[in-house]
## 1
Amino acid sequence: MCPVETSLPPMPSGQAQGDKPLCLLAEGLAGLPGQTQPAAEPAVLVGQGRILALGRQALDSGARRQALPGLWLAPAPLDAHVHLHLGGTLESNLEASLAAGLAAVRDLGHRPQLPIPRTRPGQAPPWVIASGPGLGSEGPGRSCLAQGLAGPEQFSQAAWQRALDQCGVVKVFASGLLDFDNPGQVLHSPALTAEELAAAVRAAEESGLSVAAHASGAQAVRLCLEAGVRSIEHGFFLERPLLREMAARRVSWLPTCAAVRAHAQDPEGRHTPEERQRLASILKGQMQALRLAEGLGVDLVLGSDAGSYGLEHGVALFEEMACWLEAGVRPQTVFAAATSRAARLLGLAGQVGSLEKGAVAWLLGVPGDPQADPLLLAQPRWRSF
Ligand SMILES: [Zn+2]
């Protein structure tokens, strides 16, 4: 229930799930929709696993009260870019995500022969929005996390198939990996044609899904934007004109800084010292672009790439947060990127990632305002799930 030592009683799960509403009295609330001021009456009424009311309405409900002295209540955060089949078993990675307090994850690709990750029975946290295997090139620039395809017709069919398989998003691999030998270069950028990307996006949209694009380098990212993807994953080596265009098109960006940091730190000694140095400079460039993107109004969303080299599920989200804060991104942007913005990208707005009536009551109690210090979410003193 509550893995952290605390003198506060954890919320009995029956209270969150059961019939009897409970009024939680906190020091402050973070994650109210459109919040600009501190909540005047920081109370949350929960029952049947949902938020039933907030503020005065919660206080006037007559429900039993539980005080959380000194604690701010916040919605559990989301990780919008993970690989549940990497870095452990599917089950252990879901457990690790739950232990870290995540409400939902977006799973973006795995080997075609593996089962598509799903939310566990009983709608238990974390909810999983999965792409199934990505859609990628069958030639140069192919990814082991994607089905190899060629030509618009195959991309269109594969996108339809993901909808039939009840995926929540379509993932395309529009470029290859970073070229560790040539700083600033990306292998196979672009890896897909404009026609293939357009076919995937059209079929996805017709079946009600959005498209997440693995893309680095200006050429691949430009093709993705023109095709109408919903998010750019990684997006290394982006400069001002493309970031501006992302802002104008309201395309989300998940810069996955922690993934590069893990490679630069190289815990398993996979890289040469020269490669590590180049990786550190790629990270520096990515952090500068991230800060620039914030200023240009790009919709930044937190996604860690958990499961990739050196990134454990669950806690990886907080490593990504730490990178953003070090880059100079404003704390309230980091908080929103891990909560309301991530929920919107996953199609879960109003369900998770915000404190509002009707949302799931997966709440964390932290000793301060996480909008000012989002890393407080990494060490909750109390949690409802
Ligand atoms: Zn990834």
## 2
Amino acid sequence: MHPDDKQDLVDSYASDPFFKNIVNAESLPDVLVRHDGLFYYQSKLCVPESSYRAKLLYDNHSIPVSGHLVVRKTSSRLIPSYFWPKMRETIRQYVQSCHKCQESKPSNQKPYGFLNPLEPPVEPWADFSMDFATPLPKTKNDNSGIVVVVERLTKMAHIVGNKWANVRLSIPRHGRKGPGLFSSMAHVFVPKR
Ligand SMILES: [Zn+2]
């Protein structure tokens, strides 16, 4: 690391909303180590808000060699070696606000409509929100996705593995073909965004 970068990091810890607490802490938890002015979290370099962090994001997303990688790929380059709180969120925001990416991405976004606030649920096991993470690498049970279903009144969450093909099938059928967690009372499904 260039000495200027190191100095930038050392100086920036004190003004970072998270790391400033660590700089002033009397003792550090086992997972945090201070070495030569720099902090390491489980041997990943701690990167406060700084021009070094901006440079890392740029280098791992924007330079021609990186080829404007998507959020997941940019994350997979940074997360093994660096740490800061809400790192994925920072990377997501960085990638989403990248002008080059926005210019080159064909817009398939429907025109924005008005947001209709959801009616609060009145009974349990009637209103659900859902989120899908697919496709993921297949497990030995041939599952290649995760469905997270949250019952909106009690906030009770179910997380189930699912076969990618069945994920789509299980929605219109209200899950009757699926793992049997959807209520037959269900009448409102809300895609979680
Ligand atoms: Zn980009």
## 3
Amino acid sequence: MIHKLSALQRSARSHGHAIPHVLGGNLEMTLGAIRAAEALDSPLALGWAPEVFAGIPMEFALPLLLSAAERAAVPVAVQLEHGKSYEQVARAVKLGVDSVMFDGSDLPFEENVAKTREIVKLAHALDACVEAELGSVGGSAVRGSTADPTGYETDPELVLDFIGRTGVDSLAISFGNVHGPYSGEPRIDLELVARIAAITEVPLVMHGGSGLPDAIYPAIVAAGISNVHFYSGIARHAWEELEQKVGDDRYPPYHELVAHGVEFFERKTRHVIGLLGSAGRAADVSRRRAQHAPEV
Ligand SMILES: [Zn+2]
């Protein structure tokens, strides 16, 4: 069943876990992720990032994600990730997506506020929720590089001003997390997360969740993160796994690769569900929905 991402994030925050967020880039990724969430009774977020899957039109991809989410036995949110323009967000909402992210993190603060506010106005009028980014998560899942000089940490002094003026439903923050692989020792600033979580009830989101030691995730959740994005750490191993599966057969039938792909993404998603403590939490969301008025 489809749920707004903001509803899943709020439920996770109040129950002390975080929502696993993986990309639904194709059928294998989408099906594998949903099978994992159903098997572990976990809520799930499926993202679509136009920059990562630049060769696939969102008009093909988003209906696939929505249809899979609708049929899922657990709550699944479908989000347009890193929307870069009003037009891109509007197209996704028109396709039926009720959770969008507008990423104005490369803009000056005032411009990020102004553009995010416009997106929020549009999305809320059409009953969709909005995540924005304050500070800038560096690195790139597309280029696989961490050498991004534009990444900088979220300034906690700006958080309430940003949320108050934009009306966003959740906030991606930067605290040492990066997209793509980390170069060198990651420096994750959990004190900064806790400081921001203490001043707002708006759920906080971590992008660039791959590449950290498993033991750190409970602390990330405890500090106040309610939603963690994973892609690079999963995707990087897909090819070697498929190579191993086909072994010496240089001409494996393609449908066998697809089947292995589904199995691979299911296993990887099961792992990240375990890291975030969301197994067995699917029913929390429905209970919460029954107790509250319709949510934006
Ligand atoms: Zn991201």
## 4
Amino acid sequence: MAKTERLQKFYNSLSWQKARDYKIASAGYLCEVCGGVGEIVHHKIPLTEANMHNPKISIANENLQLVCRSCHKRIHDELDGKGRRIYFDKDGNIEPY
Ligand SMILES: [Zn+2]
Ligand SMILES: [Zn+2]
């Protein structure tokens, strides 16, 4: 299995769906950066194969941030400037991680 497939499996898992739903509800459906419509649950410490099985990173509310698409893009543009990897889904959108 490719790296992206393993991470994708995590995103399909029930524990992630639950953590995501909880984060969205606890943030009041709003982007935590700009107050716009929250669309993406972002991992503050980016999820990798090395930490995806650590619930403190992968599903802990403290490591999650509800953001809108433009803030998410901006966050990743900044992270990518420091050499982080990004992923794109089949529609060309940046994958939440
Ligand atoms: Zn925003
Ligand atoms: Zn992100």
